[in-house]
Design goal:
Layout: E1 7-8, H1 12-24, E2 34-38, E3 53-54, E4 57-58, E5 70-71, H2 75-80, E6 87-90, E7 102-107, E8 113-117, E9 124-125, E10 151-156, H3 161-171, E11 174-176, E12 186-189, E13 203-204, H4 210-213, H5 216-229, E14 240-243, H6 247-260, E15 268-272, E16 282-284, E17 293-294, E18 297-298, E19 301-305, E20 312-313, E21 316-328, E22 333-337, E23 341-344, H7 360-363, H8 367-370, E24 387-389, H9 390-399, H10 404-433, E25 442-443, E26 445-453, E27 459-465, E28 473-479, E29 482-487, H11 489-506, H12 513-516, E30 550-554, H13 558-561, H14 566-576, H15 588-597, H16 607-624, H17 635-649, H18 655-671, H19 678-684, H20 706-714, H21 716-721, H22 725-731
Parallel strand pairs: 2-6, 10-11, 10-12, 12-13, 13-25
Antiparallel strand pairs: 1-9, 2-7, 3-4, 5-6, 7-8, 14-19, 15-16, 15-19, 17-18, 20-21, 21-22, 21-23, 21-26, 22-30, 23-24, 26-27, 28-29
Helix pairs in contact: 3-11, 5-10, 10-14, 14-17, 14-18, 15-16, 16-17, 17-18, 18-20
GO molecular function, one term: tubulin-glutamic acid ligase activity
Pfam families: TTL
InterPro entries: TTL/TTLL_fam
Length: about 725
């Protein structure tokens, strides 16, 4: 019988009772639980690598030692069974495989013995060249096993260090405050992706290019592009002008407005492009008040319409700081914190006039400004003071009859739409820093959305911060001229929860295989968008932790917002024709290749016209991008060229439909293999188009061919018109 494979079946009932008894007897949590299955007295478990000994004969041709040895579950089986594994030692005589042969289960470290019978039917096959792998955990059977703690490099965390350390302690993870030579699971940077240049694995809490993308000028350009395509959907961002290039346009438009109606006297707010914490912000009522120069250099800034009628509480203006987690770009995953902060001005609000334009404590909600006001109130309560929790403000509004669900629904829509606007450029930065095939980390990032509620409760986007403050203490004057940092309860409650639950979501032990197996190009047609694991899948270490304070909003609301992702499809074309890995700009040859491959030239639009178009647009954009690192056509210039080409090709349609039609045409041409087959196409254009942004999952078998799929994708916007706004609000959870 020793020449045959052994088949063993351990009944689920025995395994459950074994797990319960093991816990009652206090098995050491630092050791892996070991179970001996035998027909003779229990034997010790060898510390050697996994092998199987049957009837005193070693059947493993990998390990040298004879005798009893343990069988360890494979990596894949750990994922299937959750977080636990089972070690088994087999020994016995020739009757080990007989039906009805009685077995004993001995739990090491306890005196507990469980008895049962072996059943050769439906057993587990022992192959001499492989370890025994438990394929499934049935009926919820789990054994407590100590996980290797997740390692976090905090050497670059800077101002978020205290909140991060509290979060790591709550999770019982391992911190490396000085870094280490061996790779860590998570790297926490305080400023940018490039804080540590030597990371080739793990996860980093910053995306490359996020700082650049969320500068006020680039954010305004990204939203402006979306406003051209979807003006009604992107009306939450104030009308903006970019300085100094649009200074003349701004002056002309304001002069015309005042000439048409002398009673109109709008107010504008000027924000430096790279400013933060309220530095350099000022209000004006006339274009002549603009401060365009700093020394001998032109000042890069954005001027926006000022919201003159904000919602007030206690006669004070306030804004909302909402924390948003961008978990991944491919697939796009967005989470919103259920709790946020509200920052109050310290001077009662009055509509702007020439007399009070300089009253920063009345008009600007920045905490870093108002904290220096004599009226600033530090409070240990979350519902009073100059900084309060978002929930306390919402409860107060609800008490006045405000529809909080609608307000929250509108805020969610604002966050998703803004993220969709900035993602295309982020994809370009990402492929430049971590090209496909190059080893590198994956990225995630916490963003700070600053949102103002108007008097009619409509949310308005003020700005998005790539590095929101995560300090959980504030500076307080203890005596005249003596300042000290003291804990801030409201900051700690909100920010520690956001960081802790971000880490929980990024826990490498919780990553689902459906996400990790995705190609860089995105999801194929017919693949379901992977959703986040349910709360019941927690590890034992998380048993005492509160439920997640982060709520997934995308892909949860994909159906409502997927039609907005047109510019991402343009970015996919742009990335495909970049050619050289790490490049961020399209050269003239690559642009001609794009035109030729997509068959966009004809007798009325020759290749000479293509060259003129490239030179004209590239020259104009190079003058606006003073910090450009490379020559050539960037994504924003390519989008402008694409809009121009769409307008020439489909003159009778609105811009949105023109762009969608041209995208369909280009994607159809790229899906058709050229002479010489698919391999030739992959050489000339090395990057595949992400399909996840072209279409949603379409279960209809009639839509399996590319043509119907593209036509179905083009109907996204019209289908969206049937979805009333209340359909989103009905699904929201408080």
């Amino acid at each position: 019988m020793s020449e045959h494979y052994v088949k063993v079946k351990i009944h689920v009932e025995q395994m459950k009772s074994f797990g319960e008894d093991a816990e009652k007897q206090g098995v050491d949590a630092e050791e892996e639980e070991q179970v001996a299955v035998s027909s003779s007295p229990p034997a010790s478990v060898s510390p050697d690598p996994p092998s199987i000994t049957i009837a005193g004969r070693d059947v493993s041709n990998t390990f040298k030692h004879r005798g009893k040895s343990r069988i360890k579950m494979g990596k894949d089986d750990k994922n299937i069974c959750g977080k636990h594994s089972l070690d088994v030692s087999l020994h016995g005589g020739r009757n080990v495989n007989k039906l009805g042969h009685e077995r004993t289960l001995h739990i090491k470290g306890t005196g507990k013995i469980l008895q049962g019978k072996n059943n050769e039917n439906n057993g587990v096959s022992m192959h001499p060249s492989k370890n025994i792998q438990v394929a499934r955990c049935e009926d919820g059977f789990k054994l407590a096993r100590k996980r290797r703690p997740v390692t976090v490099d905090t050497s670059k965390a800077k101002t978020s260090l205290e909140a991060l350390r509290l979060s790591i302690r709550q999770l019982k993870w391992k911190e490396f405050p000085l870094g280490r030579r061996a790779p860590c699971d998570i790297y926490w940077h305080g400023v940018s992706f490039h804080d540590n240049e030597n990371i080739v694995s793990g996860q980093v809490n910053k995306f490359p290019g996020m700082i650049e993308m969320l500068r006020k000028i680039n954010l305004s350009r990204a939203v402006r592009t979306m406003q051209e395509l979807f003006p009604e959907e992107y009306d939450f961002y104030p009308r903006s002008w970019i300085l100094p290039e649009e200074c003349q346009q701004f002056s002309t438009q304001i002069r015309m407005v005042k000439e048409n109606d002398a009673s109109v006297n709008p107010t504008f707010i000027v924000k430096p492009d790279g400013g933060s914490q309220g530095d350099g912000i000022y209000l004006i009522r006339d274009p002549s008040d603009l401060k365009l120069m700093v020394g001998s250099q032109a000042k890069q800034a954005v001027v926006q319409e000022y919201i003159q009628r904000p919602l007030l509480i206690d006669k004070l203006k306030f804004d909302i700081r909402l924390y948003v987690l961008l978990k991944s770009l491919e697939p796009l995953e967005i989470y919103i914190a259920k709790e946020g902060l509200t920052r109050f001005c310290t001077e009662p609000y009055q509509e702007p006039s020439q007399k009070n334009l300089s009253h920063v404590f009345m008009h600007l909600t920045n905490y870093s400004l108002n904290v220096h006001s004599g009226n600033f109130v530090h409070s240990n309560s979350q519902s009073t003071g100059s900084k309060r929790s978002l929930s306390s403000v919402l409860y107060r509004l609800a008490a006045k009859g405000v529809d909080i669900k609608k307000v929250w629904s509108d805020i969610i829509a604002l966050v998703i739409k803004t993220t969709i606007a900035v993602v295309p450029e982020l994809r370009v930065y990402y492929q430049a820093e971590i090209p496909p095939g190059k080893p590198g980390p994956t990225c995630f990032q916490i963003l700070g959305f600053d949102i103002l509620l108007m008097k009619n409760l409509k949310p308005v986007l003020l700005e998005v911060n790539s590095n929101p403050s995560m300090r959980i203490e504030h500076e307080q004057e203890m005596a005249p001229g003596v300042f000290e940092y003291v804990p801030s309860p409201v900051d700690e409650e909100v920010k520690v929860g956001v960081i802790r639950d971000t880490l929980r979501l990024m826990d490498p032990g919780h990553k689902r295989t459906s996400i990790s197996n995705l190609r860089a190009g995105g999801l194929d047609h017919g693949e379901e968008i992977p959703m986040e694991a349910e709360p019941q899948d927690r590890s034992p270490d998380e048993g005492a932790l509160p439920s997640l304070c982060l709520k997934q909003v995308y892909p949860k609301y994909t159906k409502q917002f997927n039609y907005l992702r047109l510019v991402e499809r343009i970015a996919a074309l742009f990335i495909r024709f970049l050619g050289v890995k790490g490049n961020m700009r399209l050269g003239p040859t690559a642009f001609r290749t794009f035109i030729r491959t997509c068959k966009l030239s004809n007798s009325n639009f020759s290749m000479a016209s293509v060259d003129i178009l490239y030179i004209d647009i590239t020259r104009r954009w190079s003058g606006t991008m003073a910090d450009s690192r490379e020559a050539g056509m960037g994504l924003q210039a390519f989008v402008e060229a694409f809009f121009y080409l769409a307008g020439r090709r489909f003159k009778s349609q609105p811009l949105r439909e023109q762009v969608a039609s041209l995208l369909e045409l280009c994607e159809a041409q790229l899906e058709t293999p050229p002479p010489g087959g698919e391999e030739r196409r992959s050489v000339s254009c090395s990057r595949a188009l992400p399909r996840s942004i072209r279409t949603q999952t379409l279960p209809n078998p009639q839509l399996s061919s590319p043509g119907p799929l593209r036509r179905a994708a083009s109907q996204d916007y019209r289908l969206h018109q049937r979805l009333k706004p209340r359909s989103l609000r009905a699904n929201l959870e408080n």
